Amino acid sequence: MQETLSIIKPDGVANNLVGKIISRFEEAGLEICAIKKIRLSKPDAKAFYAVHKDQAFFADLIDFMVSGPVVISVLKGQDAVNKNRELMGATNPKEAKAGTIRADFAKSIDANTVHGSDSEENAKNEISFFFARQDIY
Ligand code: ADP
Ligand code: MG
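^ thats the input. predicted complex w/ adenosine-5'-diphosphate below
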């Protein structure tokens, strides 16, 4: 069993897609072990995405991530990191495979509806960024 972190980004929340997206996780055998709706502060968004701080898109990414509330969850299951990445689809929704969350719901590479950890190690760090161990079931 593995855990991964999912964020339904401001566009996904604003477009009322939370239930549809969470259903996809559950239908794929991923269990919701913790979940919360919050609005990220700018410092937290910058810290969370620090790996991208030198990228040209960093400022736009941060502005977008703080533009409205997000829904953050811990998903658990077999091969959860890769399974969630497959459900999400490619970063650029134009390149995402049909049937993936980004192909079906995302409007642009900025507003691409979901975040998902990209490795087991990053998943551990990202989960502990948002959740205390005792709040994950
Ligand atoms: P992913 O979210 O698929 O793991 P990355 O970790 O590479 O993608 O990038 C983080 C986020 O930054 C992406 O989800 C996307 O919103 C944004 N992003 C990445 N690359 C670009 C780009 N070339 N132009 C604009 N935004 C980008
Ligand atoms: Mg990433």
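The chain has a mean pLDDT of 98.
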